[in-house]
Design a protein that fits this description.
It is a single chain. This protein is of the alpha+beta class. The chain is built from 2 helices and 3 strands. Helices cover about 40% and strands about 30% of the residues.
Length: about 70
């Protein structure tokens, strides 16, 4: 099973690209923007990630890094 960590959902593509840019400095995994055409929604996803435990670990590390940046 392959996992993706969803890092945001945006109505505007420019907002999704901004989030992708911010995340690029925090993770080494690929960051993709997937467009759901029927809803005009842009999903920002990190991955693919090979296993569930790695995905959870990445989520926890990313949350910690984001918390540190906002302090």
């Amino acid at each position: 099973t392959i996992f993706f960590l969803q890092a945001g959902a945006y109505n505007l593509e420019k907002d999704a690209k901004q989030r992708q840019k911010e995340l690029a400095s925090l993770v080494k995994q690929p960051i993709e923007i997937k467009n759901l055409n029927d809803r005009k929604l842009y999903l920002v996803q990190i991955g693919p990630i090979n296993d569930y435990n790695s995905a959870r670990s990445l989520r926890d590390q990313l949350s910690q890094k984001i918390d540190e940046k906002t302090k």
